[in-house]
Amino acid sequence: MDNRTSGSNGEEASPSKLIDAKIDALDDWRGETLARIRKLIRQADPEVIEEVKWRGVPVWEHAGIICTGEVYKAVVKTTFAKGASLEDPSGLFNSSLEGNTRRAIDFHEGEEIDEEAFIALIRAAVALNTTARTGARSRGKPKSA
Fold it and tell me: By Cβ atoms counted within 10 A, which residue in 3, 64, 75, 87 is the most buried?
């Protein structure tokens, strides 16, 4: 599935431009929060790839999905695809705690973001993704079952 949409001039919008448009359309604290989260993700991983999936949800990837940036009326939710496998010494995860795979952080209006801890979590997610990918390649999978 192609994550790009055609603009009025027939050119396709990049995922980054679609995320820019989403942030611009949110003219309240949610847009500011999503922009801040995005900036921290890019700071933590300058090689991050931005995508837009699932009806417009920003997704950040590096050797697999790192996290998503979902926007709701009362929260901006950052869901980490492999969050249950990550150390969270600062206790940032406050949502989706019951699952075996994902973990999320719900950011509410007026809350401060622990930037240092968030950046560390992003870097840990990237390390987990790249280690998992390298490990799968080095084990060598049989060509037929």
Answer: 75
